Amino acid sequence: MIDPLRLAPSNHPEDAFLLRALAAFFAETPSPIGDVSQLDAEYVEEQTLFHGIVGIIERVLRRDAPGASLTHRLTTVAGVEAMRARALWHELGALSAVLAQAGVAVVPLKGVALSARLYGTPELRSCGDIDLLVRAAQLERATTVLESHGFAPRYPIAADHRDLELRGEKSRELVSQAPRFPLTIDLHWSLLPRHVGAAGFSEAAFERASRLQACGQEMLALAPEDEFLYLALHGYWHLWSRLKWLCDLRALLRQLSWTRLAQQSAALGVADLVAVAFRLVHQFFPLPLPSEQVERGERLLARGVLFPTRHASQFLQLRERWRDRLRGAVAFGRPTRDDLTALHLPRPLRGLYWLYRPYRFARARMKT
After folding, report:
1. 3-state secondary structure of 359
2. Secondary structure of residue 10 in the 3-state scheme
3. DSSP helix, strand, coil percent of the chain (3-state; round to 5)
4. What pLDDT, on the 0 to 100 scale, is given for residue 70?
5. Percent of the chain at pLDDT exceeding 90
6. Is residue 124 a contact partner of residue 89, using CB atoms and an 8 Å limit?
7. Residue 74's domain spans which residues?
8. Which of 43, 245, 271, 284 has the smallest number of CB atoms closer than 10 Å to its CB?
């Protein structure tokens, strides 16, 4: 299995094929992917689905090995994924229009919108839900609009605790009540995790977003540097467990201003996290990148900054400024959505959530 946590390459022939196919997809001059007749088709299917790259691999196979049994198998699987992507694309357009009519501006994140912008089709990148960035001031209006169209919050928060949710979380999940098409909408009011403590970044990114056309739909899109930072931190927080996230960064590289990215990452105190992303992209897609960034990421990975059991503490250690580490530590202690739904405290006693959170955390640790 291809695992970004391992710096050593996999010796599995199917893994080697997948990496060759990804390199061939992004190469200006496609390189041969080799003989695929002896590959374990079931394993390849499993890995392409897990990593969200079945559409990319299937496209390379149709071009380079059109008659292979593996190609036929992945074409069937990719067709199913494409059907879901088209349905999500339709829902995204419809919901964006409904929200716009209500005066709520949204920026689609990740998913089919990212696929349409980076790869020219919403069908190439596997995804399962719709993520939308809204301004924090418009969160409740957006929620009300979506509720009127058949959605309901997955974790209902009492109205008098919504301010705590805004400070402790960065998104709110709403689930479709229509059985014909189960769908989750993730409304984000912050691009970065609360532990980053980057006050004002999301609002500034919203202001920098531009309107563009993608596959017949007009939408707002983040500036490339803002999108790279968002995707890099999202990938890091999930331990870079999906290759599709590295593919997205690889596709986004050609749009970046290196100077602006360096300035923004330094201003936010996340230059180390960005360096890790550069090193992983370079590992899977060898291409000219700023050598100082790649070497910095190499040193950080050698320190074990993607070790799962120390993930939270390593995240804080990667913050370059002590004030950011302190803000991050405080943010880790803020009441979360789970705390607010597990126990409802009256307003005069809400300060007790700061004691309830470590109690719940310790109890969960003892159970595991």
Report:
1. helix
2. coil
3. 60, 10, 30
4. 95
5. 42
6. no
7. 13-135+189-334
8. 43
How many domains does the chain divide into? 1
Q: What is the H or E stretch that residue 186 is in?
A: strand 184-188
Beta carbons of 121 and 216 less than 8 angstroms apart: no
226-247 residue pLDDT tens: 999 999 988 888 888 899 999 9
Give the range among 94-103, 111-120, 140-149, 189-198 with minimum mean pLDDT: 189-198
Residues with Cβ within 8 Å of 7's Cβ and at least 6 positions away in sequence, in order, are: 283, 301, 302
Within a domain: residue 141?
no
Q: Which amino acid is at 144?
A: T
Q: Give CA 257 to chain center in angstroms.
A: 21
Report pLDDT digits (tens) over 265-293.
Answer: 888 888 888 888 998 898 888 777 878 88
- CA 363 to mean position of chain CA atoms: 29
236 is a domain residue: yes
CB 252 within 8 A of CB 118: yes
Grouping H, G, I as helix, E, B as strand and the rest as coil, residue 108 is strand
Neighbours of 344 (CB within 10 A): 12
283 within domain boundaries: yes
Report the pLDDT averaged over residues 135-144. 92
Residues in the chain: 368
pTM: 0.88
CB-count exposure of residue 211 (10 Å: 0-12, 13-18, 19+): exposed
